[in-house]
Structures are given as structure tokens and as C-alpha cells.
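Closing statement on the DLL sub-project.
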Amino acid sequence: MTRHRIWDEQAECMTREDLEQLQLERLQSTLNRAYRNVKFYRNRLDGLGIDPAEVRTREDLEKIPFTTKEDLRDNYPYGMFAVSLKEVVRIHSSTGTTGKPTVVGYTRNDLESWSEVVARIMTAGGVTSDDVVQIAFGYGLFTGGFGLHYGAEKIGASVIPVSSGNTRKQLMIMEDYRTTVLVCTPSYAMFLAEVMEENQIERDRLSLRCGLFGAEPWSEKMRQEIETRTGIIATDNYGLSEVMGPGVAGECQMKHGLHLNEDHFIPEIIDPDTGRVLPLGESGELVLTTVKREAMPLIRYRTRDMTRLYLDDCPCGRTLIKMEKVSGRTDDMIIVKGVNIYPTQVEEVLFEFEGLTPHYQIVVSRDGALDTVEILVEVNESIFFDEMRKQRDLVERISENIRHAIGLAARVKLVEPRTLERFQGKAKRVVDKRQI
Ligand code: DLL
């Protein structure tokens, strides 16, 4: 086996002891700066009588309250900045589907750190200076496009900043410019694979080798489907704009958990209901503290993402803590009759059946006092033309497996090929009519 490439061996392969020492030093300086320069943190710590100098261990960090999305909104637009605007050289923001978006600032050093951590996860995903990288994430306020762009450039790859959308053009570029690495959301990769098949673009006419996918939850089954249909190695990478953007964590080609850049972000897992910190290995909500960021340090930021942290001996040699593939967001999770459902659970089941496409939508409605779940699943042409009896039989089998997987009866409805919406960015899988 070839030696695994590592972008920054010193940072990514540290002993746990050295890493924890480094984290602590950086944490202390972050807390001091946040206390001195961000009114929100000063008021909060003063209110609780906490002196940042008292935080001497990782356990002490637990005394500090969480920072939430609401806190960022309350301090809109620049209230969370720890530097003056003069030092800020870039501004991004989160999508802000509800209320005001959250604004994120970067100093020149922050941009440098950002491109470093993205270079790490891209190298882990297989990117080298010989690659031609097609970035089909949106460029703009969303951090996906620019984030991956600067990481790939740092590695020295040839970057094509095509941005999102225009699927035919994406495929033309992919073929003509001999793209070797595709960067986008997994749902868009799936859609590209579909359009490739429709247009009879054979896999071997393309030079694609790897795909680095992220920005939304996706199941293992979805990975297998993308890999089989496109013939590439697909890895997952994770991040969020509030703490920086992509580059927080990413899989290596072992595809067994995401290496989290712990020298930049201290992770914790909490019980989302009680806020209690859970022991290593347990599943819960990921909380991140930035320890290198200058413009906007965040202390114990509640990501709302559900995952698990663990340590293992990854054959790639990285010693950074691992994060399991994110199963979903606490706010994407639908609670029906007290049962928690994540779209990825439904996705896993759908992939078990022949004749279905990976396009689906979960619709939750309220019928009187009763909540009902309907799952719309797009079928492919072969099933569509099948007789009614076969279709009914398929619906029954899907319903049975879904009931088994989520512990709840859902109505399954097959819909015609190409009728559900396709997404060029993040897919929206749930329509919750109860809130309307
Ligand atoms: O999605 C940053 C990003 C861009 C990550 C490109 C990876 C690649 P936001 O728009 O702020 O930032 O959305 C962040 O997306 O809290 C998760 O809920 C979700 N998310 C991001 N990556 C993954 C992933 C970017 N690999 C929110 N798996 C996060 C599951 C993900 N969910």
C-alpha cells in the first residue's frame, strides 16, 4: 500500500499529551482575548463571576456557558467580533433561513488557518498538486466555495471555480478539462451521476478519481451509490460557517470517521436536552470551541449536529480525534409521536430496494391531533412501467422496513421519475407542515 499523504504531519500526528497541552495554551489565550474584546463574553463571564484566568484545565471549560445561534443573532452583525473591522479582511454569513443570518469575520491570519485546515482535509481525501479540482459549491456568502477553493490552491492543485448550478456545463467542464476531483454536496454529486447516465456520458470518458463531499448529512448507502455510479472514492468533510466553514473535520481514504482538527477546534459531546457533557464514545450534540481564531472566537458553540467522538489507530497515521459521520441536526430531526427521526435513517432504507432513486421527501402533517408521516419516493423508469400489483408490493415492503428502522408507521408513496426537486446545494428532505 502506498504511504498515506499527510498535509501537516506535525499537527496531525501529535501525541495526545502534546496536543492537549497545545489546546490548553490556545484555549487560555482565546478566553482572555474573548473576555477582553467581546462585550458579550465579558458580561456573561462577569455575570457568573468567572475569571478566564481560572480556566486551567479542559474540565474547567465546562464551567463556561454555551454559545448559541441565538447569541450570534442577538449580536448581529458585528457584536461577536474580537477585532476591529479594519483587521477583518473577509466576511461570510450563514444562510439564515429563519430571521437574520449570522455574520462571520476573518482576519488575514484566520484566512491562512482556514486554508491550512482545508488543505489538511483535502489531502486526507486524496487531493495532490497533480489534481484538477472542480469546485461546484456556491461561491459567495456560503463558505463552501471559497473555503475549499483556498485549501485546494494551497495544495497546489489546479482549481476550477465553476461554482454551483448549470449541470450541463459542469459535465462539459468535467470531461473537457479532465477534472480529477469533484467538490460539492453529496446530493448534487448524485444528481450529476444521474444526468451523466441520462446523457450517456460513460465513466471512462471522464478522469474523475475522488469526490470530496460535505455540507449536509448523507448515509453510507448514499456513498456506496455515488462510488458505484461514478467510479470515484467519495469522502465526507464537515464544517460550519459560524466556527469557520469547511475544514473542521474530514475523512481520509480509509473512510472510517472524520479526523477533527483539534488543534484549532476543541470538541465536546453533550446531551442536547440537559447540556451535560457526555463521556468519550457516546453520541450526542457536538459543541466546538475555536482556539486559533482571531476575528470571531467562539466558546462552546452548540452546533446542533449529532455525532460521536472516538479515538482509534487509523492506518493513515493521524492521531487527531475522530468524529462519526453526522447523523443529522437536532433541528432537522423530526419528532413524531415522541419518536425521533433523522432523514438519513429513511435514506438508508430506501437504498435497500431496487428500482428506487435516491430522491425522497419526508412530509409530516397534522391530521386533527394526530401526526402523520408520508414518504415520497421517486422510482426509476423500470418500476414506473411495472404493473400495479408489483408497485403495491414494493410499497408494502418499503413501509415494513421503514417501520422497522424508525419504529413508526409511515405512508409510502411512489412518485414518477424526475418529479421531486433536485438540489444544487444542500438538499431539503423534510417538509414539516405542522409548523405552517
Ligand atoms: O455547510 C460548511 C461546509 C461547506 C462544510 C462545504 C463542508 C463542505 P453552513 O452552511 O454553515 O456551513 O452549514 C453548516 O451543515 O452544522 C451541519 O448541520 C451541516 N453539515 C456540514 N457538513 C456536513 C457533513 C457549511 N459532512 C451545517 N455531514 C452543519 C453532515 C454537515 N452535515
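The pocket of DLL is lined by residues 94-95, 137, 142-144, 147, 214-217, 236-241, 245-246, 303, 305, 326, 329 (CB under 6 Å). With this model delivered, the sub-project is considered complete and its resources will be redirected to Aim 3.
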